[in-house]
Write a sequence for this structure.
């Protein structure tokens, strides 16, 4: 539809206006729990976040989580993914503790949904580790980075850009711990892997 086209074209203000209209119409015709309603909520959130309207985006992300829980149950992959989006928004707002809590809940929900061994679950753990690092919780960050890396390697193999990102995170943990030699080794390993996977010009 027009709102989706505008979203894809980067015309976020117009996309927002159309998605608000679409959401109102779908709520009236289909009810709160219809899949199309939840899709409109998520796309409206994208338009708002891209415009840095974080407070509004946060409200619609919470609405997405509430609707998804009612439609799919409290412990579903869709709920876990919505919680990851919540964590990203808290990060945008600089609310690091709330972001970590949302990412942790997302990771736990993937486990409860029997979807622990998934890329989305590995990503949620990566976000948890990143927040722990930002808050100076270095031992916890290191453990969570390793948990995320183990999953990524099981799912995608030993060499990919996600593993490289984790190696970089582990390097930063070592650097903040004062272990410069270990940090340099990990950061070099991350850079070398990125070059192999993505190429020198990336």
């Amino acid at each position: 539809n027009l709102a989706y086209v505008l979203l894809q074209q980067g015309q976020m203000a117009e996309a927002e206006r159309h998605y608000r209209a679409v959401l109102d119409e779908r709520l009236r015709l289909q009810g709160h729990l219809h899949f199309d309603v939840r899709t409109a909520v998520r796309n409206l959130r994208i338009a708002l976040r891209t415009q840095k309207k974080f407070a509004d985006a946060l409200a619609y992300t919470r609405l997405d989580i509430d609707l998804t829980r009612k439609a799919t149950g409290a412990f579903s992959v869709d709920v876990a993914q919505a919680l990851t989006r919540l964590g990203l928004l808290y990060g945008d707002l600089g609310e690091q503790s709330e972001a970590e809590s949302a990412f942790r809940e997302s990771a736990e929900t993937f486990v409860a949904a029997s979807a622990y061994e998934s890329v989305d679950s590995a990503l949620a753990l990566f976000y948890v580790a990143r927040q722990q690092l930002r808050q100076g919780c270095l031992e916890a960050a290191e453990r969570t980075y390793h948990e995320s890396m183990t999953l990524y390697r099981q799912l995608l193999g030993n060499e990919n850009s996600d593993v490289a990102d984790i190696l970089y995170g582990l390097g930063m943990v070592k650097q903040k711990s004062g272990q410069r030699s270990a940090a340099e080794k990990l950061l070099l390993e991350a850079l070398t892997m990125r070059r192999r996977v993505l190429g020198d010009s990336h």
